[in-house]
Write a structure and sequence with these properties.
single chain, alpha/beta, ten-stranded parallel sheet, nine-stranded parallel sheet, 5 helices, disordered N terminus
C-alpha cells in the first residue's frame, strides 16, 4: 500500500503549470491589439511623442480651468472630467498630455488647436460638433503629435460646411500618429495639407500614420493628403463616398484596411491640379472601386510596426477604438 502522495504528482503539477503558462503566452500572441490592451506609446511617424510624460496630473472640469492648465510649454498632464462646451478652439502648449476621464468626457461645439508646438498627446476624449470655422482638432505647424483613442462625431443633418473638419493637419506639421479613434457622422473627416497652393511650406513634411481607426458615415477625407507621406493601415471604413485621397504628389501606402458600403476606397486623381501616388496591399475593398492614376514608391515605412491582416481588423477596431477603451 502506498503511504504517501503518488510520486508523479509533482511532475503532473509542474506539467500542468507549464502547459497553462504556454497557453497564456500563446493566447496573448494571437489576441487582437485591442484585446491585448492599448499601446503605451505611439506607433508610426508619431513614435517618441511623450506629451507631459510623468508630470503630476491635474484634473479640470471647467473651460477656464482647462485653458489655464494647458497653457505654456512645461511638461503637464491635464485630465478632463465631464463634457465642456466650447466656442472656437483652445490652444494647447507643448509637452502636454490631454486625457479624458472615463468614457464621456471631452468637448462639444468647438475643438483644440495645436499651433507651433511640439510633443503633444491627446487621448480618450469625446470631441463633437465642431462648428465652423473650428475643427475638432487642428494640428498646425506642429511636430510630434499622438492622437489616440478619441471619439470624433457630428451629424449629417446640416449642410456640409455647417461644421468644420474633425481632424485637420496642416502648415508643414510633421511626425503625427492618429490611432484607435472613431470618426462618425460627418462630411469632412481628416484633411492633411490645407491647400494645393502650399507646396513651398508643406513639401518634405506632413508625415502621418493612421492605424486602427473606425470611420463610420464619413463622406470623404479619410484622409485627404496633399504633398506629404501617409501610411494608412488596419483601419475600418463604412459608408464613405470616397475614402483615401492622395493628391498634389502625396505618397500613400494603404495596407490591410477594410472598406464597406464605400463606392471609391482610394483615389489619386480628383479635385486637385496634380495627382497623388498610392500603393495598395492586403486590403479588403468590399466591392469598392479604386482610382489609381499613379503607383507610388512608398512601400516601406521607416519605423517598426505590425499590421494585422484585414480579416481581423473589424473585430479589433470595433472592439478597441474610441474613448473609454484605454
Amino acid at each position: 500500500m502506498r503511504t504517501g502522495p503518488p510520486p508523479t504528482r509533482p511532475r503532473r503539477l509542474a506539467l500542468a503549470t507549464a502547459t497553462a503558462a504556454a497557453l497564456a503566452v500563446t493566447t496573448a500572441l494571437v489576441l487582437p491589439q485591442s484585446a491585448a490592451g492599448a499601446e503605451t506609446s505611439a506607433i508610426g511617424y508619431g513614435a517618441g511623442t511623450t506629451g507631459g510624460g510623468s508630470a503630476a496630473a491635474v484634473t479640470v472640469s471647467t473651460l477656464d480651468a482647462f485653458k489655464t492648465a494647458v497653457t505654456g510649454n512645461t511638461a503637464k498632464v491635464v485630465r478632463v472630467s465631464g463634457l465642456i462646451s466650447l466656442s472656437g478652439q483652445v490652444d494647447i502648449g507643448s509637452n502636454t498630455t490631454v486625457l479624458g476621464v472615463g468614457s464621456a468626457s471631452g468637448f462639444t461645439g468647438g475643438g483644440l488647436r495645436l499651433k507651433k508646438v511640439t510633443n503633444v498627446v491627446v487621448r480618450n476624449l469625446n470631441i463633437s460638433k465642431p462648428l465652423k470655422p473650428s475643427d475638432g482638432i487642428t494640428v498646425q505647424a506642429s511636430t510630434k503629435v499622438w492622437i489616440d483613442h478619441n471619439s470624433f462625431s457630428a451629424d449629417r443633418d446640416h449642410d456640409k460646411d455647417y461644421y468644420d473638419g474633425l481632424l485637420d493637419i496642416n502648415h508643414a506639421s510633421d511626425s503625427v500618429t492618429v490611432s484607435w479613434n472613431t470618426f462618425k457622422d460627418h462630411f469632412k473627416g481628416s484633411l492633411v495639407g490645407h491647400s494645393d497652393n502650399n507646396a513651398s511650406e508643406d513639401t518634405g513634411h506632413l508625415h502621418v500614420t493612421y492605424h486602427h481607426n473606425y470611420f463610420s458615415n464619413i463622406y470623404s477625407r479619410i484622409p485627404s493628403l496633399r504633398f506629404g507621406t501617409g501610411h494608412f493601415y488596419d483601419n475600418y471604413v463604412v459608408g464613405a463616398e470616397t475614402a483615401v485621397h492622395s493628391r498634389m504628389g502625396a505618397q500613400m501606402l494603404v495596407e490591410n484596411n477594410v472598406f464597406r458600403s464605400t463606392p471609391v476606397a482610394v483615389t489619386t486623381n480628383r479635385d486637385s491640379d496634380v495627382d497623388g501616388f498610392a500603393n495598395l496591399r492586403g486590403n479588403d475593398l468590399g466591392g469598392a472601386a479604386t482610382e489609381i492614376s499613379q503607383v507610388g514608391t512608398f512601400t516601406t515605412p521607416p519605423y517598426s510596426y505590425t499590421a494585422e491582416p484585414a480579416s481581423t481588423v473589424v473585430a479589433s477596431v470595433t472592439g478597441g477604438a474610441g474613448a473609454g477603451k484605454l
